[in-house]
Amino acid sequence: MKAEQREPEWDAIVVGGSAAGLSAALMLGRARRRVLVVDAGSPRNRFAAHMHGVLGQEGVSPTALVETGRREAAGYGVQFVDGTVRVAEDGVAGLRVTLESGETHACRALVVATGISDELPELPGLAERWGTGVLHCPYCHGWEVRDRHLGVLATSPASLHQVQMVRQWSERVTLFAARIGEVDPQVSARLRARGVEIVNAEVVEVLGDGDQVTGVRTADGAVVEVDAIFTMGTPHPHDVFVAGLGLDRAELPFGAGSFLTVDQMGKTSHDRVWAAGNVVNPMANVPMSIGAGAMAGSAVNGALVEADFAAAEAAQALEVRA
Ligand SMILES: Cc1cc2nc3c(=O)[nH]c(=O)nc-3n(C[C@H](O)[C@H](O)[C@H](O)COP(=O)(O)OP(=O)(O)OC[C@H]3O[C@@H](n4cnc5c(N)ncnc54)[C@H](O)[C@@H]3O)c2cc1C
C-alpha cells in the first residue's frame, strides 16, 4: 500500500487555536478523535487586556482563555503544534496540511478556525491604542467607557450604524465623518435628534496619554477632546492556505469583503472541510465563535461516524464475497 493511501495520522486537524478552534478541538477530543491543533498564536483580541460579554469568563484575558482552552482540550488527548499552516490540499486518502516549517500532516477532516486581521485606518496614534483607547465594538468595551465622551471614526457606511449603537452607552457621542464624505441630511438629522455631534473636518491624528485616548486633531488644527474612539477596520480572513481547495465564497454585507460560505453546522462546500469563527463571520464575538466551533467539531465527528460505519459495511461485504 502506498504511504498516501494509509489511514491518515489524524482524524481532524484544526487550524487556529483560539475561541473557535479550541472549542472544535474540545468537542472532537471528547469524541475520542485523534486531533491536532496547529496555531500561529495571534488571536484577534490579543491587543485587549480583558474580554467582556463572555459568560463565565467575564473580564478574563484573551491569553488566559487560550491557555485554559488548550489545557482542557489536551486533557482529552488533543495535541498541539505551534506554527502556521502554509497550504491545505486534497490528498489520496484525505487532506494534507503543510506548515511554514515544512512539517506535513494528513487528516480525514479539516477545521478552519484562523480568524481575521483588522486593517485599521492609517492615522498617527491609532494603531498603538487598538484594544485600549481605540475600540471596535461597544458590546465588548462599551460598558467600560459608558457615559464618557466617545468618538466614532467613520470608515465606511456601516459606521453610521456603529455610531447609533455607541449612543446607547453614552449621551456624549461625536461622529468624525470625513472618511465617508457628506452624511445624508436625513441621516444627520436622525443622529442629531439623539444628540450625536457630527464633525466633518478630517481627523489627522489620534491624541492620547499612553494607551488611552484624549482626543483627535483635525486637518484645520482643531483638537476635539474624546475619551475613547470606536472605529471599524477592514476585515481580512486568514484563508489563503485553503485557496487551492476551491471552496465556495460570498460577498458579505456592509462591504466586509469575500468570505468562505458554510452551512449551519460550519460545513464548507468541500465534503471534508469545516470552518468556524471570525474566518467565516467577522461579526462573531468570542462566545459566538466558541459556539460555532463546538458546532463544527460535533459536525466533523458526525461525518466521521458515518464514514466509519460505511467503511465497516464495505469491509464486511468484501469478507462475505471472499
Ligand atoms: C481589540 C479587540 C478586542 C476584542 N474584545 C472582545 C471582547 O471583549 N469580547 C468578545 O466577545 N470579543 C472580543 N473581540 C472579538 C474576538 O477577538 C473574536 O470574536 C475572536 O477572537 C474570534 O475567535 P476565532 O477563534 O474565530 O479567531 P482568533 O481568536 O483570531 O484566532 C485565530 C487563531 O488562528 C491562528 N491562525 C491564523 N492563521 C493561521 C494559520 N495559517 N495557521 C495556523 N494558525 C493560524 C491565529 O494566530 C489565531 O491564534 C475583540 C476583538 C478585537 C479586535
Q: Any overview of this molecule?
A:
It is a single chain. This protein is of the alpha/beta class and 322 residues long. It has two domains: 3-118 and 234-321, FAD/NAD(P)-binding domain, CATH 3.50.50; 121-231, FAD/NAD(P)-binding domain (3-Layer(bba) Sandwich). The protein is built from six helices and 19 strands. Strands 1, 2, 3, 4, 5, 6 and 19 form a seven-stranded mixed beta sheet that branches. It has a five-stranded parallel beta sheet with strand order 8-15-9-10-11, covered by helices on one side. Strands 12-13-14 form a three-stranded antiparallel beta sheet, with no helix packed on it. Strand 1, helix 1 (19-30) and strand 2 form a beta-alpha-beta unit. The longest helix is centred in the last third of the chain and has 36 residues, at 286-321. The chain starts with 9 loop residues before the first strand and ends with a helix.
Task: Summarize the entry for a quick read.
This protein has 322 residues and is α/β, with parallel strands linked by helices. It contains 6 helices and 19 strands. Helices cover 25% and strands 28% of the residues.
